[in-house]
Amino acid sequence: MAYHPGMATVSRRDVLAVSAACAACACCGLSAEAEDVAADQFAAEQLIADTKPPFDAGAIADFSQAKVYEQFARKGKLLIINKDQRVFASSSICPHKSCVVKLRGDKLVCPCHGSAFDDVGTVLSGPAKESLLRFAVSVKDGRLNVDRTKSFAERDW
Which residues contact 29 (CB under 8 A, 6 or more apart)? Predict the structure, then answer.
């Protein structure tokens, strides 16, 4: 392109400066949820690495109400669910891209890409194509134990 008087010119340095500024703005614009997801994944991996199976989730009496218990969703990568007086453990990790699902009303929703699961972990809408995994549970001396080394896909529930 030829130079003409009155035509604005942009140097390579200007292009790089604008590109760097745009990249910085994009990084600063990350949502708090995206930052939480990264921190959650690191914390969950650390907890699992530090915990030998089975994981002691607490007294079985602590899970007597019919609901989804999320206290281990972030750090332990699991949910405790009481549905119709049956207590089971489900993964809190979306099978699509491994983000931690969150309870929204009566659904479990992936904040990263919008997959939705019902309150027992069955996939309702994608992009996830599979339901949440479940883990083996047992009760010993009134304590709920979860063995995350034994997982089950929906067809094996």
Answer: none
User: Quick one: CA torsion of 54, 55, 59, 63, rounded to 10 degrees?
Assistant: -110
Structure tokens at 74: 């972030």
Say whether the peptide bond before residue 53 is cis (omega within 30 degrees of 0).
Answer: no
Q: Is 87 helix (H, G, I), strand (E, B) or coil?
A: strand
Q: Which strands sit side by side in the sheet containing 116-117, from one edge to the other?
A: 102-104, 107-109, 116-117, 123-125
> Which residue, 130, 134, 129, is CA-closest to 148?
134
Sheet holding 55-59, edge to edge: 55-59, 143-152, 134-140, 86-91, 78-83, 68-69
Q: What is the pLDDT of residues 2-50, one digit of tens each?
A: 544 554 555 666 555 555 555 554 544 444 444 454 444 444 444 444 5
Q: CA-CA distance, 26 to 41, in Å (whole number)?
A: 22
Q: What is the pTM of this model?
A: 0.65
Task: Report the largest interatomic distance among the alpha carbons of the chain, rounded to a whole angstrom.
Answer: 87
